[in-house]
Amino acid sequence: MCLSIPSKVVKISNDNTMCTVDTMGVQRDANLMMMEDGDVKIGDYVLLHIGFIMNKIDEEEALASIDTYKEILALLNEEDRKRAILEDDECPNRESDFDART
């Protein structure tokens, strides 16, 4: 199962094809090609899947999801917490991918 943590857009490339998002303090680049031009703006909350922005979500919904995710993370050890945040958009597509990563 994949969980996508809401991420806040902090930068958008000049050609509007890429952006930088902040996921609970971790920044990464994400592709905007799945979204309509101009649909995503700096400050918006989005969901990612394998490096692509898949949709934009309401800020209130995003913050509520982040709070819930923080509750889940509090139950994990430090290594699992880091992995959950850093790898949240790298969902394995096959069972063998998952087995190789655990």
Written description of the protein model:
This protein has helices at about 60-75, 80-85, 95-100, and strands at about 5-10, 20-25, 25-30, 45-50, 50-55. The protein has a five-stranded antiparallel β-sheet with strand order 3-2-1-4-5. The protein is α+β, with helices and mostly antiparallel strands. It has three helices and five strands, in the order E-E-E-E-E-H-H-H. The longest helix has 16 residues, at about 60-75. The two termini are about 15 Å apart.
**Strands of the biggest beta sheet: in what spatial order?**
3-2-1-4-5
Alpha-beta classification: alpha+beta
Can you give the helix content as a percent range?
A: 25-40%
- Write down the Rg: 14 Å
User: What's the N-to-C terminus distance?
Assistant: 13 Å
Low-confidence stretches: 93-102
How large is the count of helical segments?
3
Mean pLDDT comes to 84
Q: Summarize the helix and strand pattern as letters.
A: EEEEEHHH
Question: What is the number of beta strands?
Answer: 5
Query: What spatial form do the alpha-carbon principal axes imply?
Result: globular
Q: Tell me about the biggest sheet? A: 5 strands, antiparallel
Beta-strand percent range: 25-35%
